[in-house]
Amino acid sequence: MKEITISPVTRVEGHAGIKIFLNEQGEVDSAHFQVVELRGFEKFLVGAAIEEAPRITPRICGICPSAHHLAAAKATDQIFGVEPPATGKKLRELLNIGQFIHSHALHFFMLAAPDFILGYDAPAEERNVIGLARHSPEIAKKAIAVRKFGQRLTEAVGGKPIHPANALSGGMSAPLTEGKRAELVTMADEALTIAREGWDLARGLLDGVDTGVGAVETGFLGMTRHGLHTTYEGPVAVLGPDGGRIGSFSGEEYTNFIEEYSEDWSYLKFARLKGGDYYRVGPLARLNIVEKMGTEHADAALAEYRERFGTVTQATLAYHLARYIEFLTSCERAVELLSDPGITGSDVRIPVEKVVNRRGIGIIEAPRGTLIHDYTVSESGIIERCNLIVATCQNNYAIDRGVEDMARRVVENGTLTEGAANRIEMIIRAYDPCISCATHAIGRMPLRIELVRR
User: Fold this and answer.
1) Which strands sit side by side in the sheet containing 383-389, from one edge to the other?
2) Residue 31 DSSP SS3
3) Which residues contact 286 (CB under 8 A, 6 or more apart)?
4) Binding residues for Fe cation
5) 44-62 burial, b for 16+ CB within 10 Å, e for fewer?
6) Of 284, 289, 326, 332, which has the highest C-beta tally within 10 A?
7) Rg (CA), the chain
8) Which residues contact 194 (CB under 8 A, 6 or more apart)?
């Protein structure tokens, strides 16, 4: 048995592994994306009061805390039978937009861009954010500036820059002050200028790149409201592999469409559509589903994107451009919300009194895709059951199959070069997986690739 290890795979959030099995001729027989970490939050939450869920779940991840915070808060709204007031909803949407700006800027500029700007065959010691800063210092500076705005927005609206705490059952715990609004709208204008200028870079990122690599034929799932792109509220549309609309859901009826399952090579759960078709979530899926982004410059970018990829595309590497268009619309939407005088209104929460419904499902779009929090509680509001379906679990099948497709292309005579290994990593990075959201590790478990001859 021949084994080649790459440790760790770089520029992904969390730890995982890849195993590539070779036949006697040194050709790829099969390959799998493998996660061997322990996931525990669904058990940690059992026995806690439901109102604690929005405070506990942001600790799942330091990259995606706002999405978990808001999904849990939406679930508690249902359990207590309340609908947050308009200003409270606007603040929640603004909080989620802050996470989109921070997360998408981080991934596009710092994790993905080095492969395309510096070259995927560049030495590993150069093909990273430090190398990017040396090669293109202005790009690095702008990336840091927009990430800073995303974090400031999270801190101002959510109460903390990393693990927000202001969303709770019935709305938000505190309004946005006029002073904070004025500060943030100036930063939002600056971030939008950077995002608009950056589209010139983004639109050409995949020029000369074979966008057929790692492609997987799947259906798609994502939130939309009246055909517009949305991240906080709206039904989740479901497309089949042919791009046809299968249906939509907004609550517990998600179980009519989605089923979870496991495979013996990974601790990470998988999800598929009932009936056997697989699906993907995240920026690519959302852009396949929506008719418009709903903001001027992002709509213009979407038109260019669709000229190249069509209305519905299976191209995995198109995730990068889709992610940038979402980053652009998030900056535009931040300017809109922060320019709305009503955003500083004081009516941000409806008090709750008792449990009205023993089950609550909170659904939101996280940067990496649709996030579902499903809680069942006792009559006194103690969590009895918890199920979290995160984007990386839903993309798990497609990541796995994309890895095998790329492995078949780059492994030659039983040999995996550094450049070839990075090409496999690029397929994983296209999904921007958040393995911490999907699993939780005990100890240090670096991502590694093993090449096995059998």
Assistant:
1) 359-366, 369-377, 383-389
2) strand
3) 222, 223, 224, 229, 322, 326, 365
4) 64, 437
5) ebeebebbbbbbbbbebbe
6) 284
7) 21
8) 142, 145, 146, 331
The 10 Å Cβ neighbour count of residue 172 is: 25
Burial class (CB in 10 A: 0-12, 13-18, 19+), 90: buried
Residue 66 and residue 153 in contact, taking contact as beta carbons nearer than 8 Å: no
Contact between residue 163 and residue 59 where contact means Cβ atoms under 8 Å apart:
yes
How many Å separate Cα 345 from the centre of its chain? 30
Binding-site residues, in ranges, read 42, 61, 64, 388, 434, 437, 440
Q: By the 8 A CB rule, do 109 and 139 touch?
A: yes
229 CB neighbour count, 10 Å cutoff: 28
Short-list 169, 108, 207, CA closest to 348? 169
What are the structural domain ranges in the chain? Answer: 219-337
Burial per residue of 203-218, b for 16 or more beta-carbon CB atoms within 10 angstroms, e otherwise? bebbeeeebebbbbeb
Give the whole-angstrom CA distance, residue 106 versus residue 114.
12
Place of tokens 């790329």: 406
List the binding residues for Mg(2+): 42, 388, 440
Instruction: State the burial class of residue 414 (Cβ atoms within 10 Å of its Cβ: 0-12, 13-18, 19+).
Output: middle
297 and 305 Cβ atoms separated by less than 8 Å: no
The annotated binding site for Ni(2+) is made up of: 61, 64, 434
* Joined tokens for residue 407: 């492995």
Residue type present at position 150: G
Largest CA distance in the chain: 70
pLDDT, one tens digit for every residue, the chain (454 residues)? 465 555 555 566 667 778 888 888 888 888 888 776 665 788 889 999 999 999 999 998 888 899 999 999 999 999 999 999 999 999 999 999 999 999 999 999 999 999 999 998 888 888 888 999 999 999 999 999 999 999 999 999 999 988 999 999 999 999 999 999 999 999 999 999 999 999 999 999 999 999 999 999 999 999 999 999 999 999 999 999 999 999 999 999 999 999 999 888 787 889 999 999 999 999 999 999 999 999 999 999 999 999 999 999 999 999 999 999 999 999 999 999 999 989 999 999 999 999 999 999 999 999 999 999 999 999 999 999 999 999 999 999 999 999 999 999 999 888 888 889 899 989 999 999 887 776 644 334 445 556 666 5
273 vs 224: CA distance, rounded Å: 19
